[in-house]
Each structure stands twice: as C-alpha cells, then as structure tokens.
Specification:
Layout: E1 3-10, H1 12-16, H2 20-31, E2 34-41, H3 45-52, H4 64-77, E3 90-98, H5 100-108, H6 121-125, E4 127-130, E5 136-140, E6 143-144, H7 149-166, E7 182-189, H8 200-208, E8 214-221, H9 225-231, H10 233-242, H11 244-259, H12 265-292, E9 312-320, H13 322-330, H14 343-347, E10 356-358, H15 362-372, H16 378-387
Antiparallel strand pairs: 1-3, 1-6, 2-3, 4-5, 7-9, 7-10, 8-9
Length: 390
C-alpha cells in the first residue's frame, strides 16, 4: 500500500470552543497515522473562494445538499469576521501513512441530522439542526476533510500554495478589549507523548485550553541536536553548579567505603568542583538526547543541524497573562511536586520526562521562538516532498 497524505482542517468554531485536543486525540489514536504537519492559517478571501469552489464533488459520498451546506459554511465562516474585519483562524493537521485519506475520513465521519452515536469526530462535535419544515436552523461541521485521495492531493496543494502568505504565527486575529496587553508564549509537547499512537498530545492541549488563551502558531518539530543544545543552553551551567553537592557526597561515600579512609570537607568540596561539571554535562547530554534523539558526542558535528529523530509539537499561545497562565496549568518541573490537576502531575514521570515545556517569561519566549521557529512552514515542505511542487 502506498503512503498517502491526508489533511484535517479544524474550523474556527472548534478552535474557539477549545475542541482541538479532543479532535487530535481521536485522529491519532483511531487512525494510527503519523502526524507530520501542523500549521495555523488565517485564510484570505482568495483562499476561501478557491477552496469553497472545490467542496461540491461527484466523488463525495455525502448527500449533495450537505456538500452545498459545506460550501456555504466555508464562504461564511472561514472568511474574515464581517463585524471586526479580523481574519479567522483554522488549524491544518497533516497525517501520513497507508490509506491515510480513507482512515482520516472514517474517523471524521459524515454529516447527518439523524446521527445517534458518538463514534466519529462529527458525531461528537458537529451540529446539523433542522426546523420542523426541514430547513437548516444551525450547521457546524467541526472539521473539514477530503473524501478521497485525488481530492486530498488537489486541496492540499491549494492550501500549501497559500500557506506562506496566510499562515504561520498569526497576527491580528483576536479581538481584545481596549487597553488589553496580550503576550505570547511557547509550549513544546515533548517526545514522551509520541512514543506510540496515544491520546496524550491531545489531552495535554485540552489541559492548556483551561487557560482561555488562543493558539496562534503550530508546528510539528523534530528538534535538531544543535537546536536542543541552544534551547537548553541556559540549563547547562545551572546543572554544573547544582549537582556539585550531590555528586561530591556520593563520591565521598563510595571512596571511603572502597579505600577505608576518611575524606575531609575540603576533600569533598574538591571532588564536587571536579565531578559536578562532569555530572552536569552528562545530564545536559541526556536532555539533548531526549529532545532530539542524539547527544552531541553520538553523531558527527556536521549532522548536529539536521532534524532529529524525536517528535514534538510546538504551539504559540496568545492572550493576556499568557506566560503565567500556561505555567500554572503545566505545574513545576518535578512531577512529584506538581499539584493535582496539573499537566506534569497527570502526564509527567521525571524532571526530564515531564510532558511539556513552557516559556518562563515573555522575553524567554522570544528567545525560544528564534530557536524552534514555530512559524516555519514545514507543512508546505511535507506536501511538496510527497506530492510535488505546488
């Protein structure tokens, strides 16, 4: 079976209602596909019009009336808000694997006013409410997806063509009250959430949704060794200093037991000065390996800048007090000290394997944006690598 690319568009309303995590959880766990791309897009009028014209298709198994509803929905709800003039946000999810389009569509489901179960995404999150005469009172599809591989390719190339101009870290897409001072912060959903197809990435996003903040940037990230070294560089000196006392005490106990003589406090301090930096460097290498797949000494320096083997999701959250709100939900670095209901208490296991990272200040967020580049368009890159130039 050939590897396919499939997309899912999370609608502005689903984003607004913080349903992104639940949608992502179902797609990952029920398709078993590889999440290879994420991008936030604020569709231009040109993109909305071009996409809407592709909605009605003879190849779609859904009723023609439903297709017409979807076309009208796209024109009305993916266009800029007529009241504020602000563009609306959508999130593009890109999956790869055998029969990816069929698998994604089966999890997305079709639209019907008569649905009774909760098996598909649309069963749970969409609405199609009719009045007594059969007219449509309310319609929200929750997500948009292609009906077959041919149309998936056509629409992916279309969105990819607009993804530079219309996508990235979105600007001026949220309507704030006068005087509000929003800030942005970075979240990394760490590699421990991607060891096998699991709902954890979506569950973590669900926890962050409690903050009431807005996702304005998203990217699937395979952090290089060089990126991990730069990203966690400030931690290195902290570890070298912090670990002196612990390693010197352990070394003193081992040496006294092994050789049968006592060491003075000065000797123990000297051991810390020697071994602390060594232990700190070792722990730093472990962090780099965990985030990128390789410690610096394990691969040639020429390969340090290549994408790593471990997957993360990088998210940019925006809103008033964003840094503190995200860190409150995340919890302290050590999961054993994190309060109940925090992400690290629920999903973390050690100080390093602790589910997610979040910037500790608006200034550090800017530094981290420069390293991981959450606005980088690897969505378009994956589309072109698989389907050819757009």
């Amino acid at each position: 079976m050939s590897q396919q690319l499939a997309y899912v568009i999370v609608t502005p309303y689903s984003l607004y209602k913080s349903r992104t995590g639940g949608i992502l959880t179902r797609l990952i766990t029920r398709t078993g596909l590889d999440l290879v791309g994420l991008r936030m897009i604020a569709p231009s009028a040109e993109l909305v019009k071009e996409y809407a014209e592709t909605i009605v298709s003879a190849h779609d198994t859904q009723d023609r009336n439903i297709q017409e509803l979807l076309k009208q929905y796209v024109l009305e709800n993916l266009s800029a808000d007529p009241k504020t003039g602000l563009r609306r946000r959508v999130m593009m999810l890109l999956f790869r694997g055998d029969e990816a389009v069929r698998k994604v569509r089966s999890v997305v489901g079709n639209l019907s006013p008569d649905r009774r179960g909760g098996e598909t995404i649309r069963d749970t999150y969409s609405d199609l409410i009719l009045d007594a005469s059969g007219g449509v009172r309310y319609f929200e599809p929750a997500v948009l997806a292609a009906p077959n591989a041919e149309e998936a390719e056509k629409k992916l190339k279309m969105w990819a063509r607009y993804s530079d101009a219309d996508g990235g870290i979105l600007e001026n897409v949220i309507n704030y009250p006068a005087g509000a001072a929003p800030e942005r912060t970075l979240v990394l959903i760490k590699p421990d959430n991607f060891k096998f197809p699991t709902g954890r990435p979506g569950n973590v996003i669900d926890f962050f949704s409690r903050t009431g903040l807005y996702i304005v940037g998203a990217k699937v990230l395979r952090m290089s060794t060089a990126q991990a070294m730069e990203f966690y560089g400030p931690v290195r000196e902290f570890l070298r200093a912090k670990l002196k006392d612990g390693v010197s005490s352990k070394a003193k106990d081992i040496l006294e037991k092994e050789f049968g003589f006592k060491l003075s406090e000065a000797d123990q301090k000297a051991l810390g000065e020697i071994l602390g930096p060594v232990q700190g460097d070792s722990q730093f290498d472990n962090i780099v390996r965990f985030m990128s797949g390789h410690a610096p000494g394990e691969i040639p320096q020429a390969d340090w800048s290549k994408p790593g083997t471990e997957k993360c999701i990088a998210l940019v959250y925006e809103g008033v007090g964003a840094v503190n709100k995200i860190r409150d939900v995340l919890g302290p670095t050590d999961p054993s000290k994190a309060p109940p209901g925090s992400i690290r208490r629920e999903f973390g296991s050690t100080i390093m394997v602790n589910a997610a990272h979040a910037s500790d200040s608006a200034e550090n967020a800017q530094r981290e944006f420069g390293i991981v580049k959450p606005g980088e368009n690897n969505f378009k890159q994956v589309v072109e690598e698989t389907l050819g130039k757009v």
